[in-house]
Amino acid sequence: MVGLPYDCLANPLGAVRLTFEKAVASGSDPAALDGKDWGVGDLFRQFLFDNGGLSQVPLLNPSTIKWVQPNTLVRFRGMIQDMLGNEFYIGAYKDGDKWITNKFSDAPQCPVNASSDMRIWERRLLYCIPVPGQNSWVESSLDAMRNPLANSISPQREKRPREDDTAMTDVDAVESSHAGEDSPSFKKMREDGMTVESPNLQKITTEGNTPNSSLVPVVERNSFPCLLKIYDSLESDLKLNDVFEFIGVLTFDPDITVGGAGNDELIDDLCEDVSVHLPPAKVPRLHCVVHKKLEVSDLLPSSQFELTSPVIKEVREALLGHLTAVLGNDRLAAEYMLLHLLSRVHARVDSIAVGKLSLNLTCLNKESISVFGNNIKLAVENLVPFTDYAPLTVDYLNTVSLAPKKDYNTNRLVSGLLQLAEGSHLTIDETSLQSGTLNSMGVENALVLKNMIESQQVQYDFTYYKMEMAADVQLLILSEGKSNIMPADLVLPLRPSSVGSATGVDGEILKAWRWYLATMKTLPHSIEPHLQKVGIFQV
Taking a C-beta distance cutoff of 8 angstroms, is the pair 364, 322 a contact? Predict the structure, then answer.
């Protein structure tokens, strides 16, 4: 069998352009191909899923960005934190008698001017970040997929040693890029001896001198964001706060990095919004060819467990015993904690979120919280992929930003603590809450928390109006008495009789418990309409 005439992994743009040329040769009008897939999606799906190519695609993160090459196929896992709208770009242009596409890339490979025969197309821009609160064991389970090519780089693409592992010179970038080696900007940089730094962790966590650095929100400066450019996808397919795996072409534009304004006024006019120009040295670009929404089960390694009653019962009893030990041998509290960890929003009836089960554990003071609070926190972190912890005090409420807020100066959505992915777990510690005066922000935050726990809705602040956004977050409140700020579905006094530990559990056992929680939460079921009511239980 004759192999493919292109390398989907090392030269995906070559594959895109070849399929475009075939589509044009078959009679397709380039003007009619905007928003259309002329076979690119099927081609990459066949390579990734039918031919086993997915395991070869490196996962983009602060480690792999040091060696992954521009204009190659990579994948990025993250949460959609902001939607930046649409961007116009030169989708196709005529070079002599030949039509060339610019889809899945940032700039034309050949000079384009206003007199050229060209087609202006449109693409969506998404700002994605690593999932808030993602625990280390999730990343550990993905280690095998992070660097599949590190030891199998072909000789012609092998990189020579560099003096600084945290920077990528322009010669490295040019030699490793099939599509950009003839770019005039690359040639000029080579002649001038200029260097281009890779968007690695050091660049992301260090304040830069670029004028656009302020566009990266402070709350995200220590993360690894990515600007996604989306093609041929319905708006309803990608929603705010959804967790996705994006597979696409990593691009690197040295002109933006070195601060060059460029001479192409036409291209500049297509990107008038400065928020689009997030510095590539801080925010890599990824032109998506395939995307998939991720569930919790997708973050776990392949399970060796069978979905049978004996197996489920055995795993459940072991997990329940562990929770009982963590909660000081309080079996009743462990039962409700397990139900809490299995809860999720299955449906919404009017303003009621059916399936949620917020839990308020009481009888905890400043002394006992240091023992049991820490054990509970560690236990939940070991079981749930996305967790967060908030110490609730008057000062905290008066100063923190809980709800996301629109910044119209940068046209960006500034993230808040409650902008969380579906299935996240949030623990609220009220044991340090004392009497005090709430300012306007504190009152607003208290209302946001109350609305979140009652209806699983978060009010996003757009200055001139507020928008309710649906959430699905497990909320656990630790307090001395019943919380007045957070009216939980279930209020339960914790009655410990001993001190257990959340550590020392075998790794394989933890995998079984994670599998159990993820599997049980997604099993199909039905609830009769007359049972779709939420009650508040008190024990």
Answer: no
